[in-house]
Amino acid sequence: MSISDHERVGRALPEERVTPADPIVRPAPHWWLWYALGGRLPRRHRSWVLFDTTTGTWWLRHIARAMVHLAVPIALIMIFVPAGWGLRVGMCLLGIFLALIYSVAYIAESAETRVKKAGYPVGTALAHRDRAGLVRQQQESERKRAAAAKRAARYQKRTDR
Questions:
Q1: What is the residue-wise DSSP string for 125-155?
Q2: Are residues 89 and 114 in the same domain?
Q3: What is the pLDDT of residues 32-54, one digit of tens each?
Q4: Element (H, E) at 69
Q5: Helix, strand or coil for residue 148?
Q6: pLDDT digits (tens, 9 = 90+) for 122-149
Q7: More confident residue, 32 or 7
Q8: Which range marks the domain in which residue 152 is found?
Q9: Dihedrals φ, ψ of 89, to 5°?
Q10: 3-state DSSP call for residue 76?
């Protein structure tokens, strides 16, 4: 779609829709637990959801939410399964391993679903993370250019003697 097509349809371009206008308000612990279990947060936390799914540690946050999902089954196994502690712990570790494999396999889709529930268009989190990645690459390139210029100046000094 061209820019005029976006304007005609009334949709925002990716550059326009990734910047949160609202202040980032972290949810209370009970709301975070609800959010971790897949619930929708109140509208005032909309920007925080975008931040949560696009910050540099977004994948660790996703894993933490996945572990919240596993807390109840793990507790039930540890309490009610009539077996030795070793078998119970082994079952829980195997369950965690399997759950994390599936959770990480669908990490991007899960983040997009959370952002969509917060009221953003699908693709917003990906566009935001892509833009942040480009900014990090540009900063790293500038840092490397400055270091190379500094080394070249030092070399030039040595050869001028």
A1: HHHHHHHHHHHHHHHHHHHHHHHHHHHHHHH
A2: yes
A3: 999 999 999 999 999 999 999 99
A4: helix 58-80
A5: helix
A6: 999 999 999 999 999 999 999 999 999 9
A7: 32
A8: 123-160
A9: -65, -40
A10: helix
